[in-house]
Design goal:
Largest sheet: 2 strands, antiparallel
Membrane topology: Multi-pass membrane protein
Function: The phosphoenolpyruvate-dependent sugar phosphotransferase system (PTS), a major carbohydrate active -transport system, catalyzes the phosphorylation of incoming sugar substrates concomitant with their translocation across the cell membrane.
Number of helices: 19
Keywords: Cell membrane, Membrane, Sugar transport, Transmembrane, Transmembrane helix, Transport
Subcellular location: Cell membrane
Number of strands: 2
Strand content: under 5%
InterPro entries: PTS_EIIC, PTS_EIIC_3, PTS_IIC_cello, PTS_Sugar-EIIC/EIIB
Radius of gyration: 25 Å
Order of helices and strands: HHHHHEEHHHHHHHHHHHHHH
Distance between the termini: 23 Å
Structural class: mainly alpha
Length: about 450
């Protein structure tokens, strides 16, 4: 009895911590911002895929170059300005989460502040040249795109927090009365906070440049972005965080509490770097990325429940379980598995804990190993998370059929692992039914 009470208290304690973490305003802001920008990344991945595979099969020479211009400008308008975009989106969502009444002004300040923190002199290699030359008053895509994403996140959070706090001070608000257009009134209301925030960050930018010869983007990339990504998106760091997210499902807490707030932003940075490298025909830098996780560890949804559904069809003798499986198989093919999570159920079902957490981890490890050994191509295209199995690995790797075979192998392994646990769950349900009948 004491053990049962202790376990119950432990679960309640974990639940409170996870819920509090998921509702933390800055993590929630990151989740909202990256969810908003996701369509652009998927479009960028599609453009890169067509430019470097499909178009090369169909066209050649000048015609190919002319057709590829379409994909190049889409990449410029999505991936190559992602740092600026994420700064603006963070400003918007954080101010909304703070219940600030003028989120567009916060978005504007975040974008402008990030530009303020960029270097005024950059090194650019002209077409046909081998050495870089210094150019002033220019903003290359290297500072606007994936290279400034972490800077965009940090500047967006800091600038918005300061801006919202200053804007809520009545003494700093300029009120022109009710006889002017609302947009004009809002602009003047935040005029002084805008001046203060921009000036503070401009001073910081000037000090970094004049005293240390650095800028914020280089500083963040060197001391924050790369160390954080190397730990968080290392093989074992990813396995730990993703497994922890899946573990929360067993207590009825959405996996997104950990995944969407902490891990996914790092994984998205990795896939954007891969897309850019693939577009430029360079070495792909990151094995671990968001498409790899979605392709090899999200088979039917969290916990690779497509494998569970197949196992149920093969060995389950429980009528209710089979009914749930029949209802869940269609959405499961598109990685939507709430019918399984709550219908089978997975929630509070200790019997299914081991395979639910273990199989996605196996998928990550096997795909990482296969990629590292050159057995499959790395994932270089960001695909929608609802992309069905078989199709997903082919698209994510820009047409590598070997990745499809690996996904099928992981599905087979997952089914074999789930089978004994499905049988055990049938026995549990049968025993519970007998107790109910008595």
């Amino acid at each position: 009895m004491n053990t049962s009470m202790q376990n119950s208290k432990a679960i309640q304690g974990l639940t409170k911590i996870a819920v509090k973490l998921g509702n933390q305003i800055h993590l929630r802001t990151l989740r909202d911002a990256f969810a908003t920008i996701m369509p652009l990344y998927i479009l960028a991945g599609l453009a890169v895929l067509l430019n470097n595979t499909v178009f090369t099969w169909l066209f050649h020479g000048k015609t190919l170059a002319d057709i590829q211009y379409w994909g190049t400008v889409i990449t410029n308008g999505t991936l190559n300005i992602s740092g600026i975009l994420i700064a603006g989106l963070i400003g918007y969502h954080l101010s909304q989460n703070r219940k600030f009444k003028n989120p567009l002004s916060a978005s504007m300040v975040s974008i402008a502040t990030l530009v303020v923190m960029m270097p005024n002199v950059v090194q650019i290699i002209p077409d046909g040249a081998k050495k870089a030359v210094s150019i002033s008053a220019a903003m290359p895509f290297s500072n606007l795109g994936t290279g400034s994403m972490f800077a965009g996140v940090i500047v967006g959070l800091l600038a918005t927090e300061l801006f919202v706090r200053l804007s809520n001070i009545k003494q700093l608000q300029i009120n022109l009365g009710d006889n002017i257009p609302p947009a004009v009134g809002k602009s003047f209301s935040v005029l002084i906070p805008v001046i203060i925030v921009m000036s503070i960050f401009a001073i910081i930018s000037a000090l970094l440049n004049n005293l240390f010869g650095m800028n914020l983007i280089n500083l963040i990339t060197t001391f924050i972005q790369e160390p954080l990504r190397h730990v968080g998106t290392s093989l074992w760091g990813t396995v730990f965080l993703y497994s922890l997210g899946n573990l929360l499902w067993l207590f009825g807490i959405h996996q997104a509490v950990i995944y969407s707030s902490i891990l996914e932003p790092l994984l998205i940075v990795n896939i954007t770097e891969n897309i850019a490298a693939y577009q430029a025909h360079q070495t792909i830098p990151n094995i671990i990325n968001v498409s790899q996780i979605q392709t090899f560890a999200l088979l039917g949804g969290s916990g690779c429940t497509l494998c569970l559904l197949i196992a149920i069809f093969i060995v389950s003798k429980n009528k209710a379980s089979k009914t749930v499986a029949k209802l869940a198989i269609a959405p499961g093919l598109f990685n939507i598995n709430e019918p399984v999570i709550f219908g089978y159920p997975i929630v509070y079902n200790i019997t299914m804990a081991i395979p639910f957490v273990l199989i996605p981890a196996i998928g990550i490890i096997l795909s990482y190993t296969a990629t590292a050994l050159g057995l499959i191509s790395p994932c270089v295209i960001q695909i929608p998370w609802t992309t069905p199995v078989i199709i997903a690995p082919f698209l994510a790797t820009a047409g590598d059929w070997r990745a499809v075979i690996l996904q099928v192998i992981i599905i087979v392994i997952g089914v074999l692992i789930y089978i004994p646990f499905v049988k055990a769950n049938d026995n549990v349900l049968a025993a519970q039914a007998k107790v109910t009948e008595q």
